[in-house]
Automatic annotation (TrEMBL):
Name of this chain's protein: DNA helicase-2/ATP-dependent DNA helicase PcrA
GO biological process: recombinational repair
SUPFAM superfamilies according to UniProt: P-loop containing nucleoside triphosphate hydrolases (SSF52540)
InterPro entries given in the database record: DNA_helicase_UvrD-like_C, DNA_helicase_UvrD/REP, P-loop_NTPase
PANTHER family xrefs: ATP-DEPENDENT DNA HELICASE SRS2 (PTHR11070:SF2), UVRD / RECB / PCRA DNA HELICASE FAMILY MEMBER (PTHR11070)
Length: 627
């Protein structure tokens, strides 16, 4: 029996063979690999790439072709590249880098697209102006935004060559934003036969990791290319729709795929203990019926759910959970001086609130088109603060003049090379005086607002400011707070107001935000832990603290009734707050290898426990209420 059980641990081995059969150049087949949490998706991806190298290396190199692999993060790129010995046969990159390498050099086409896009944006803003109230703060800001876009439109013909840096500031006249690169790429691939031909000739095989979170317009464009070039272009998707966490991912990916596509499925979970796998299976069963198997050589593991009232002292509550988990598991690394567990939170508002950057974070998080860049720290407006301003402020605090000089030399237009030595020395003196004046904003422990920092930079011409932030360097009558309609409602729906509110936050919140998105702090979220795993995990749930409108754990756990909108969206096959919440909960719980503790705060702890038991997610002894 032990032998049979051990065989079960390798029940997914046939999947790699199925993928290899798709990679026959005489009869290539596109595929979608469904691979749930801990199933060894990356291992299968690398195995497939190694087989391509083994079987078709000469075939591809003779034609000057490569295999493209799109991954989710730079860290994932490095890991896959390392496993492949950084072989140039494989082009491993993030989606932004991949698209830029395709479209760069097509400057005339990029210019045409930008002109059309800018004209559309300007027209939409002017329509809002016609319906707005003259003289209000939002009216003035919107007018400044129109003028900024019109200036860019007028100057666009002067740009000879467009530029883009996936990890850079992208703020000068020739630079494209992250969003623009993806939108241009999707449009070109979908509408320009030459771009399709270039893509196919250069990369006859394209693998996409974490495909469920790849921009839906881009995925649709690649589907169209594959459809038109079946037998010539192979598209391989790796992912799990249950782990989709970004709103711009394709909602129905994996459904209604062409009949000729292969659809292999992995059912093992090699990461989590059997008890945790059981919980994960119950969480997702109602969604798609997919169920995983745990390894037979894993210890059974622990999963516990602790419920506290909303008015609980959270620091004390979470210390109680630490002690209980240490007692339950017999694992001293849950509590005390040896504590070594990972805290995961399910909503970014919770991190922003606990770590002190909520004022800065909240307005931008409400804007769908900013959310992805906000969460991975790539928004050019934010990298201006985190990569240019913050290092100077921190270096000044540490008394590191050398670091200040390096940053100024790297980014400031004041230190551009001059014609002669005298002019250069004058510029150095001017730069030094400007940086001293700039740093005086923080003298006597002052904490200036981000907008004050921005205005000072503009006044001193110390650094080039991102184009989209120029409107906020103009002084507006702050006393005129009579905006159009209810200000709080308007801020949730208007990009200009979102930036205005964000920049009104103290600059100190920039440092906390930067540390958070870089994973330097105690708390991590579902985005931050993508692909990671930890022996001990505490998941913290608190709708009240999260203050998000996209998620509701009280609804998921039965403590709050579904709204009419939830019911209508569900009937229409649309995403609902409950399903979004279920996915986030699944992703985060699936990070735990040995023991999982869920700490929830609710208005109705007893109703939460009742629902958990009815759904059979947990046993009665696994759910503890503290009143």
């Amino acid at each position: 029996m032990d032998i049979d059980q051990n065989k079960d641990d390798f029940i997914d081995n046939h999947v790699d063979k199925e993928i290899i059969s798709c990679l026959n150049f005489n009869n290539p087949k596109s595929f979608f690999l469904f691979a749930g949490a801990g199933s060894g998706k990356t291992r299968s991806l690398v195995f497939a790439l190694n087989q391509i190298r083994k079987l078709y290396y000469q075939h591809l190199r003779f034609r000057g072709q490569s295999v493209a692999v799109i991954t989710y993060t730079n860290a994932a790129c490095d890991e896959i590249g390392r496993r492949l010995d950084y072989d140039p046969l494989f082009s491993v990159s993030t989606i932004h880098t991949f698209i830029w390498e395709l479209i760069r050099g097509f400057d005339t086409d990029i210019r045409d697209w930008l002109c059309t896009s800018l004209k559309t944006q300007i027209e939409e803003l002017k329509i809002k102006q016609e319906n707005g109230r003259f003289g209000t703060k939002i009216f003035i800001e919107r007018q400044l935004s129109i003028e900024t876009k019109e200036i860019r439109l007028r100057n666009i013909d002067k740009v000879k060559q467009f530029t883009y840096n996936p990890s850079g500031l992208n703020q000068d006249r020739s630079s494209l934003s992250h969003t623009e690169v993806i939108n241009i790429g999707a449009y070109f691939i979908n509408n320009k036969p030459l771009m399709q031909k270039i893509l196919i000739n250069k990369y006859p095989i394209l693998f996409i990791d974490e495909s469920q979170d790849t921009n839906k317009d881009l995925i649709d464009a690649l589907f169209e290319v594959e459809k038109k070039n079946t037998g010539v272009f192979l598209l391989g998707l790796f992912g799990d729709t249950m782990q989709r966490i970004y709103s711009d991912g394709k909602l129905d990916l994996g459904l209604n795929l062409p009949e000729i596509w292969e659809k292999p499925i992995k059912i093992m979970n090699h990461r989590c203990a059997p008890r945790i796998v059981e919980v994960l299976n119950r969480i997702r069963y109602i969604v798609d019926g997919q169920q995983q198997r745990a390894r037979t050589d894993k210890e059974f593991g622990f999963a516990r759910f602790f419920v506290f009232p909303l008015n609980t002292d959270k620091a004390k509550a979470e210390k109680m959970v630490e002690d209980r988990m240490s007692e339950i598991t017999g694992d001293k690394q849950w509590s005390g001086t040896d504590a070594d567990y990972t805290t995961l939170i399910l909503e970014h508002h919770m991190a922003a609130n606990r770590l002190g950057f909520l004022e800065f974070f909240r307005p931008l998080y409400q804007m769908d088109n900013l959310k992805t860049g906000l969460l991975d720290g790539s928004l050019p407006e934010l990298t201006f603060f985190t990569q240019v301003i913050l290092p100077i402020v921190q270096a000044n605090k540490n008394g590191d003049e050398f670091a200040i000089t390096n940053t100024v030399r790297k980014y400031s237009p004041l230190l551009k090379i001059q014609k002669n030595e005298t002019e250069q020395l004058l510029k150095i003196k001017e730069a030094k005086e400007s940086i001293n004046q700039f740093l005086s904003l923080w003298s006597e422990d002052n904490n200036p607002r981000c907008v004050d920092v921005l205005k000072c930079v503009k006044e001193l011409n110390l650094f080039d400011i991102p184009e989209s932030l120029h409107p906020f360097t103009i002084d507006i009558n702050e006393n005129d707070q009579d905006n159009e309609g209810n200000p709080s409602d308007f801020h949730e729906n208007d990009l200009i107001s979102a930036w205005s509110e964000c920049l009104n936050a103290p600059f100190s919140q920039i440092s906390a935000y930067d540390s958070y998105v870089k994973g330097k702090l105690k708390f991590m979220t579902h985005q931050g832990v993508k692909g990671l795993e930890f022996p001990r995990v505490m998941v913290i749930i608190d709708d009240n603290e999260a203050r998000g409108f996209l998620f509701s754990y009280d609804k998921l756990f039965g403590a709050k009734e579904r709204t009419r909108a939830d019911i209508e969206n569900e009937a229409a096959g649309k995403d609902t707050s409950i399903e979004r919440t279920r996915r986030l909960f699944y992703v985060t719980c699936s990070r735990a290898e040995k023991s999982l503790a869920i700490t929830a705060y609710s208005e109705n702890p007893k109703l939460v426990k009742k629902h958990l038991l009815e759904e059979e997610w947990f046993e009665d002894f696994e759910v503890e209420i503290f009143l």
